User: Which sequence fits this backbone?
């Protein structure tokens, strides 16, 4: 993508009122620890979702994930298409994310995030002679996103959290990129209570593609540290994680997460449905991907500012389906199933240096 296009995209999404504040797939947003952990006992306190024992804030994240060979099968739901089955010999994901504090005051914190993610497939039959798979293999599935996270502490107990995210999501190339075709929005809002430095919870909503289609659903945030070792971090129903602090520089996690994405897939040949002359021919499809992951994760401090994250788990694919995005009925066109398999990933992320936090009177 030409640099000027990328710059224009970031400016439009980052500054427009419609794109104000989902969440990085990290919760809570990267920001200094709460004011109730400062060393000055006379400092005014302001609540936020963080609790003692949570992992360090993440400024820059680079993650690579790989899965072994698995079966892919598709069933046509309309006339004019065939059923198809093959093996995916490669499924890999690369993500690069960055978070920058744009405003950092005790009563208001704002974080701007930018991310690029790419998912690649290779199939045993090349070309597969099945347009959906051939498109995905040739161009990959990409997401270029920016978001704004706004945390507004009210007092020692109450706080608000708002996120809005805009992303260009699909199998586009730089020549095909079009905001109107590929642009997606998601949002999240939570109102919470900080009961103690070890316990914070909240109620709100999430609006996005976590469960496949664009939908609005309730959300319960629950962050609690039970003792010096154990804690839980949850944004139910999207994810629940149990945390074990082995030491100040080594943390283990286990739990589940539900991940959903929506991609626009361009068709080289328009799809005309037999026997349905009233339906507009399709030159693109909306691919909805939903999966449930059960995981074990380890984060380890390598340097004062650099951490390693290693993760392994099991992926259950709930949906990988293509829908009509043009006609009013939004009919399902292809029903696909990806084999459920183990996965593994490695991640490096940069955090505020420990010495910097200690000088500011903040503990991790």
Assistant:
């Amino acid at each position: 993508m030409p640099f000027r296009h990328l710059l224009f995209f970031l400016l439009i999404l980052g500054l427009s009122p419609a794109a104000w504040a989902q969440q990085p797939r990290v919760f809570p947003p990267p920001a200094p620890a709460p004011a109730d952990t400062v060393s000055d006992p006379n400092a005014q306190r302001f609540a936020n979702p963080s609790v003692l024992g949570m992992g360090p804030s993440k400024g820059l994240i680079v993650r690579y994930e790989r899965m072994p060979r698995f079966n892919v099968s598709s069933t046509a739901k309309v006339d004019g298409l065939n059923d198809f089955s093959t093996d995916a010999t490669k499924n890999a994901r690369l993500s690069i994310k960055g978070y920058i504090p744009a405003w950092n005051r005790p009563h208001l914190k704002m974080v701007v995030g930018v991310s690029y993610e790419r998912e690649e497939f290779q199939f045993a039959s090349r070309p597969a002679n099945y347009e959906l798979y051939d498109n995905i293999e040739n161009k990959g599935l990409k997401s270029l996103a920016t978001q704004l996270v706004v945390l507004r502490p009210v007092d020692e107990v109450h706080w608000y959290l708002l996120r809005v995210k805009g992303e260009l999501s699909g199998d586009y190339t730089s020549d095909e990129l079009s905001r109107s075709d590929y642009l997606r929005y998601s949002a999240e809002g939570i109102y919470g209570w900080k009961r103690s430095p070890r316990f914070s919870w909240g109620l709100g909503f999430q609006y996005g593609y976590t469960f496949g289609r664009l939908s609005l659903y309730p959300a319960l945030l629950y962050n609690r540290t039970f003792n010096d070792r154990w804690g839980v971090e949850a944004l139910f129903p999207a994810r629940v994680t149990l945390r074990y602090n082995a030491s100040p520089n080594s943390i283990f996690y286990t739990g589940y997460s539900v991940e959903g994405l929506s991609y626009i897939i361009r068709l080289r040949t328009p799809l005309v449905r037999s026997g349905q002359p009233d339906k507009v021919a399709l030159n693109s499809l909306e691919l909805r991907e939903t999966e449930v992951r059960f995981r074990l994760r380890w984060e380890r401090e390598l340097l004062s500012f650099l951490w390693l994250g290693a993760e392994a788990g099991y992926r259950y694919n709930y949906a990988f389906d293509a829908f009509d995005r043009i006609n009013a009925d939004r009919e399902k066109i292809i029903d696909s199933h990806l084999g459920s398999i183990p996965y593994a990933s490695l991640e490096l992320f940069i955090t505020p240096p420990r010495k910097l936090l200690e000088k500011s009177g903040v503990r991790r």
